[in-house]
Amino acid sequence: MRIGIIGAGYVGLVSGAGFAMRNHEVKCADLSREKVESINSKKSPIYEEGLEDALSRLVPSALSATTSVAEAVLESDAVFICVGTPSKKNGAPDLSALKKCAKEIGNALAQKKDYCAVVVKSTVLPNVTEGVVLPILESASAKKAGKDFGLCMNPEFLKEGVALKDFLGPDRIVIGCIDSRTERAMREIYSGFNAPILAMKPCDAEMTKIASNCFLATKISFMNELANLSKKLGVDIEAVAKGMGSDKRIAPYFLKPGPGFGGSCFPKDLRALKSIAKKQGEKMAVISATLEANDSQPMRLVELAASKIDLKNAKVGVLGLAFKPDTDDVRESPAIPVISALLSMAKEVNAFDPKAERNMRRIFPQANYFPSAQEAIRNSDIVLIVTDWPEFSGLDYGSKIVVDARNVFGNAKRPQNYDCLVK
Ligand SMILES: NC(=O)c1ccc[n+]([C@@H]2O[C@H](COP(=O)([O-])OP(=O)(O)OC[C@H]3O[C@@H](n4cnc5c(N)ncnc54)[C@H](O)[C@@H]3O)[C@@H](O)[C@H]2O)c1
Questions:
Q1: Residue 345: what pLDDT?
Q2: What are the two backbone dihedrals, phi and then psi, of residue 231, each rounded to the nearest 5 degrees?
Q3: 305-334 average pLDDT score
């Protein structure tokens, strides 16, 4: 089928490449001319394993990009909305990009003769697809949803770092279609994927995505609190995680303690759920506690560092800026509160990340950035390991003080002057 992708970011570009690899013809539209030019010249604007390789094979025959939403809609049988839905200051989701995008799609639908399915892939709260997107599409196109065009909510569950692999081999595909014709189109789009398709109402699909993220984030905060306590009691949290995770009801995933969760999804999706719950008079005590525990975790790393050295006279190395390894994404990374605190408390901040330096420089241009981890270590009195990039366990730390937020060394030999936040 011919597939349009609106918003060629982490989700949109990976989905576009994935659909093209499953023999669909893909046109990505993005506001950013820079991203569009980069895609059309086979260069990925983001770092994601395998993506640039895929683009080099797919562009231009199976995938191309444009700055025109109308072009993507007019040339497609289904259009996926993949624009961002970030938090507003009050925690509610900012739907301005989604609304603008829906209006542009609606305007293009007005000129389109053939049937087209509009698919919301952006993460949204329950009832946004039918309560916000549908009326905008109908009013801009002067057409009727379920008759002249289709509408579906199809949440995305990929993880950055292994996004293309996750997209191509999902555990399940969730679709919430407003009518049977849209559902047939969605089943055809995903016919080349080896995963169960779970069909439900659009609001159920919306809640499935938000609930999954909230549940995983809660698992992380639970383990972080348990790790903080275990360290004081002399309990090995990794042995505990192994013991817990061997229980099929618990599963071994998301039990690794660290400096707190970040990224563009977990924090904002928890805040979004809280915001809608508040309007309904529901407290969501678990979600509030998950966020509260997460907010205080990065500062524990700074406090541990301050207990080892007089920070105001110390040059502090920060290894790892991305919110997790194998990505260049720094959105809501725990490294942000850590660096922010260190910039006011320490003599110098010496940062390094294999992929995320460019993005972190935009937030903290005043920090020092080093081209290698080894040079950042050499120029620092104390080193904080914030992201668990595998290379960090194989460096020469000499006698430098090392404070590790992730236990990157596991059972391997640790530096001589070492402490771990969570072990
Ligand atoms: N990043 C993830 O791991 C992930 C995983 C699952 C779901 N999601 C959800 O997917 C959505 C997108 O997330 P992302 O991380 O890909 O965001 P992103 O910021 O990387 O990408 C969004 C893109 O949309 C473009 N855009 C915005 N308005 C546009 C418009 N009107 N027309 C054309 N392009 C427009 C932006 O330029 C940007 O390139 C969010 O709702 C997010 O919660 C993200």
A1: 98
A2: -60, -40
A3: 98
